[in-house]
Amino acid sequence: MDPIAAKTNKVLQIICIAFLIIASRVLHLGVVQRDEKLKEAAKPKIRTQSIRAPRGEIYDRFHIPLAKNQICYHAAIDYSQIQQIASRSWTTNEAGERVKIFPRREHIQKISSLLSDVLGLDEERVEDLIHAKASILPHVPFVIKNHLTEAEYYRLKMLEKDFPGIRAEISSERVYPREKSGSHLIGHLGSISQREYRAVVEEILSLQEVMETLAPLPSPYQTVEEVATRLETLKNKAYSLNDQVGKSGIEKQYEERLRGFSGIKVLEVDNQGKPLRELPESRDPIAGSAINLSISIELQEFAEELLIKNERERDGRNLALDPKDKVKKQQPQPWIKGGAIVALSPMTGEVLAIASYPRFDPNDFVRGGAERTSRWVENEQRIGDLWNGNASLEREKWNLLSKKVEKETQILSWEFFLEQILTKQSPLFSFFEKIDDIKGAVQIQEDFIALLYFSKTRSPLELMEALTLKQGAIFDSLKNLPESAPYLRRIEAQMGGIIESKDRLFALDLFRLSIYSPRFSDELLAKIGAMKIATYRLLNQSFCRLLKEKKEEISKTFHKTLFADWKNEHKKEFLKQKRIEEKEKKRYAKPYLDYLDQKEKELFTAYWEENKIALFLEAPPPADHEEPLYKTLSLLSRELKEEFLRTFRFFEELDLPLLTPHKKWSIERDLASAFYPVGGFGYTRSYAFQTESPQGSLFKLVTAYEGLKEGCALRLIDKQALAPSGKGLIVAYTLDEVPYRRIYKKGRLPKSVSSHIGEIDLIGALEHSSNPYFAILAGDYFSSPENLNQAASLFGYGTKTGIDLPGEKKGKLPIDLKQNITGLYSYAIGQHTLLSTPLQSATMLATLANGGYLQVPQLVKEIHDPFIEEEAVLPKTRATIPLPASIRNPLFEGIDRCVSSPKGSARPSAIKSLLSNPLLMRDYLALQHQMIGKTGTAEILYNPAKYPSSSPQMYTHIWFGAIGFPQEMKMSAKTKWENPEIVVVVFLPFGDSGKEAAPLAAQVIHKWREISKAHHNK
Question: Are 279 and 287 in contact (CB under 8 A)?
Fold first, then answer.
C-alpha cells in the first residue's frame, strides 16, 4: 500500500475513534445519567452573607447617650457570591464553533450597569471597584454607596435574589446627639486609612499562609492556636475599605471593645439563587460593648459654655508696659485663646467634666465629607483653603440675647491678615495703610528690582541695609549713578519710616505675596492700578473659589472623554508595568484602581493647568451671579481679561524664595501661612490633657507641702523697697528687718504682685500668694533643691496621669535645680521649665483633698460586655502620699483664706467679673468656706507679630484650682476638711490674673450640686 494512503487511514481511524468516544459520553450523560444530573442541578447551593455588628454605644454617668447608632442603608457588593460563578467556560456559537466565555466578568458588567441605573453611579467605576477592591476580601461586603434612600434600598433588596453579589444592607451609623459637647473625650470615627486597611489585609494574608503552609510563626505568636485565634478575630471584626474606626478619644481607646463581632448568615439557595432556608451554621452578630462614662454631660456642656463666654471676657485683658511711653497698653491676642475646665470626684478619681475650647463636631467625621471635616483638621491644605477664599475661619461665641452658642466666621481678608502678623503700633502697619493700591505695590517692587540691578549685588539684604543706613560702597555707587536717582528717592520717601532693614524686606515680601509685579503690564496697570490691595485680594479669592467649582465640573468631563481614550490605549501596558514594579520591590499588589486613579489625577492636573484660564473665560457667568469679579472683567478687553486672571496666584503657587532671611520660613507659602498659629487653634486638641503650660502660683501648694513635710517654719515680711544705695530692689525682710534683696545668693528672687503684704507665715503666704516667701522657702530651707522635684513627682507632675484617653501629655519637670538658683526660685512659684496639664493639676488637688491617694483619673465607669452582664471599672491608686492633718490642715487653711479672707488673692471684692455681675457675686459669696482654692498666674513669652524686628512680649496664662465641700459639712477643726465633694481646675490662656478664673470654678460647683440633686430626686 502507498505509504501516504496508509498514514491517511491511520489518521481517519483515530478521528473515528475519538468521535465514537465523544458520542458514547454524550449518550451516557444524556440518557443514562440524565435523571441524576437533573437532580444534581436542582440541588440547593450554599450562600454566605456577612452581617455587620452594631457598634457599642457610649453614655454618661446618668445614662444620657453620647454616641448612638442610627439606621442607615448601604449598597454593597458581596464578592463571595460572585466567586460562585465560573470565571470561564466553553459554549457553542451559532456557527457550531466551540468558544470560550467569561460568565463572571459578564455578570459583573451586568450588575454594574444595574447599579448605575438604580443609584446614579458611573458604570465603569463600579465595575472597576468590584474587580479591584471588592475582590480583595471576598468574605466582607464592599460598600459601593452609603446613605441610600428607602426607595433605593427596597429596590435593590428586590433585585438581590436575581443578581448574586448585590447586597442591600441595613446598617447602623454613628451619631453624636450632643454634637460638639465632650468631643475631645468621646472622640470621633473616621474612614479606615489605606495604610490601616492594607495592614489588616496583609496581616490576614500572612496568617492564612502560616496556617496553610505551617510556615515559621511570626512574632509575637508562640503557638499555632494563637495564630488561629488572631486570624479568626480579624475576620470576625470584618474590616473593609469603607469601614469607620475610632480615630480619637474613647472611640479610639476602646475600638476593640466597641466594634463587636460580625455575624454570618448561611443560606441554602436553589439554582436560580433564591433562598430556601437558613442553615444552623449561621451566627448572629455580637454588638460591641456599651460604655458608661463617669462624666456628666450636663456639667460638661455647662463648663464648655463657660469657656466660650470667657473668650470674649478676656479680650483686651492682657496689658503690658509700652517701652516707648511707659504706659500700660492692650496686647494683641490670638483670634482663639482657648481654655480648659477639669472637674473630678476626689474620693473616687472619677472625671465629672473635662471641658476644652475650641471644640469640634464629631458628626462631621462620620458623614460630613471633606468640606466639613477640613474645618477641624488644621493642616496646610486647610490653610491653603483659607488663603484661597474657599473657607472661612470659624469660632464659637455666646449670644447674650438668645442665650445660646453661635458660630462666628471670619474671611481671610487682607486687613485681617495684616492684623494677625503685624501690631498696630509697628511702623509696618502705618506703611501698609499709606501704600494700599496695586500701582503703589507694583512701583515699590520694581524700584527695588531696579536698584538691585544697578547695585550689581545678588543679596537683597545687603542692598536694603545700604539703603537703610545710607552709607557704604553699595549706597555710594547708587548715589553717584544718575539712572538710579529716581528709584532711590521713591524708596526713601516710601520706606523712610521703617528703620530696620529686615522689616523693609519683609514689607516687600508682603507686597509681592499679594501683588506679583512681573505679571502686570503697563496697559493693565493703567486700567486697574488704582484698585485697593484689599479689593484685589477679595477678587483673587473669588477667582479661586469659582475656578474650584469649574474644576470639579471639568474633571467629570475629562474622566468620560480624554481619560477614557487614554485607558483604551494604555491601560493594559500601564498596569502590566506596575505589577512588574511590585514584584521587583517585593510589595503586596495594590488594587489596580488605585494606580488608575493616581494616573488620572496626574493627567488631569497637567490638562487643567494648561487650559484653566481659557475654560473659565469660555463659560458664561450665571445670570444671577453677584460675584464682583465678573463686574471687573466686564470692563476689560479679552486680552486684558486673560492677563488680569493670570495675575492671580493660588496658595499652591506661592513657591518663590523670600527676600527676608528667616530661621523657619523659606518660600512665600510660609509667609502666607503666618496668620495661622503654630500648632493650630487646637479644635481637635484638648487643652485639658493635651496642652502643657507653666502653672504659676497653684504649684505653691506643692512647695508648701514639701516645706511642711521638712518641718520648715519660715516667717518673713513681704514688703518691697529700694535698697538704701538706690540700686536694686528689696523684695522682703526677715522678722529682724534684714532685707532679702532681689539678687540673693547668686539668684534672682521674684517679687509679689502687691508691694506691701506684711508679716506672713506659710498660711498667710498661701492666702496672699507671696512669691518671695516660697522662693526663699525652697532655696534656704529645703535640704536639697531636688526635694521640690521629688515632691512634684509624688503628686504626679512630669508623668501621665494614666487617664484612658489617647494623646495625653506628661508635662515636664526642671533638670537644672542644683546649678540654677534663679530657676529654683522660679520653680517654687510654678514657673521656670515646669510644664503641666490642667488634668495633672486636678489630680494634685484631688490627692490633697482625699488624704493622700494619687489616683488614676477614671473616665470609664462601667462596661456592658455582651458576654458579661456588667463590668464595673474600679478606682486605681497610683501611689499613697504621706498627708497627716498637721500638713493638710495648714494647706487648706491657707487656700480657704485665699478665697474667703478680706485680703485673700481670690477675695470677691477684687474680682472684676463679680463686681460687674451681682448674681455671680451672690453665688460666689454663698460658697464661703465651702470652696477653698488657689490662684495661679503664669508668665509666658509670646510674640503675636511676625515681622523681623518684633520681639516676644510677656503674657499671662491664668489658673484657679478649687476644692468644694458639701453645704452641710461640719465645721469642727478635726472634720471640716474630711468630706470633699468636687475638685475643679480652670485654665485660661491669655488672661490677666488668676483670681478672674475663680468665678468659673464656683459656677461649676453650683452646677454640679444642681445636677446631682436633680438626678438624685429622679
Answer: no
The answer to whether the beta carbons of residues 960 and 994 sit under 8 Å apart is: yes
Q: Given a cut of 60, is residue 665 above it in pLDDT? A: yes
Q: pLDDT-based confidence at 160, cuts 50/70/90? A: confident
Q: What is the pLDDT of residues 856-907, one digit of tens each?
A: 999 999 998 877 666 677 789 999 999 999 999 999 999 999 999 999 999 9
HEC assignment per residue over 90-143: EEECCCCCEEEECHHHHHHHHHHHHHHHHHCCCHHHHHHHHHHHHCCCCCCCEE
pTM (2 decimals)?
Answer: 0.86
Residue 53's alpha-carbon distances to 62, 264, 468, in angstroms, are 25, 10, 71
Q: What angle do CA 908, 912, 918 make, to 5 degrees?
A: 65
Contact 854, 346 (CB under 8 A): no
Query: Which residue(s) pair with 72 in the sheet?
Result: 171
DSSP secondary structure of 217-258: PPTT--SHHHHHHHHHHHHHHT--TT-EEE-SHHHHHTHHHH
Which residue type is seen at 272? Q
Where is mean pLDDT largest: 257-261, 274-278, 920-924?
920-924
Sign of the Cα pseudo-torsion (481, 487, 489, 494, in order): negative
Helix (H/G/I), strand (E/B), else coil: 393: strand
**Cβ proximity of 944 and 953 under 8 Å:** yes
The residue among 283, 274, 273, 240 whose CA lies nearest residue 259 is 240
Could you tell me if residue 472 is left (phi over 0), alpha (psi between -120 and 50 degrees) or otherwise beta?
Answer: left
According to DSSP, residue 884 is labeled -
For 611, other C-beta atoms within 10 Å of its C-beta total 12
Instruction: Judge whether 943 and 951 are in contact, CB under 8 Å.
Output: yes
Q: Locate 335 and state its grid cell.
A: 483670634
Other beta carbons less than 10 A from residue 891's beta carbon: 23
Residue with cell 489588616: 200
Which triple of cell numbers denotes residue 841?
493639676
Contacts of 290 (CB under 8 A, 6+ apart): 56, 57, 58, 59, 863, 864
Report the C-alpha gap between 990 and 677 in whole angstroms: 14
What is the rounded distance in angstroms from the CA atom of residue 1018 to the CA atom of residue 1011? 11
Task: Return the H-helix or E-strand segment holding 800.
Answer: none
Sign of the Cα pseudo-torsion (515, 520, 526, 527, in order): negative
For residues 150 and 171, give the distance between their C-alpha atoms in angstroms, rounded to a whole number: 13
CA distance 135 to 142: 9
How far is CA 881 from its chain centroid? Answer: 37
Residue 545, CA distances (Å) to 512, 542, 550, 659, 672 in order: 21, 5, 9, 29, 18
For the chain, the C-alpha Rg in angstroms (whole number) is 37
Amino acid of residue 594: D
Specify the higher pLDDT residue, 377 or 26.
Answer: 377
- Locate 795 and state its grid cell: 503628686
Q: How confident is the model at residue 39 (pLDDT cuts 50, 70, 90)?
A: low
* Cα 638 → chain centroid: 45
CA pair distance 687, 184, nearest whole angstrom = 9
- Can you tell me the distance from the alpha carbon of 216 to that of 227, in angstroms, rounded to the nearest whole number? 11
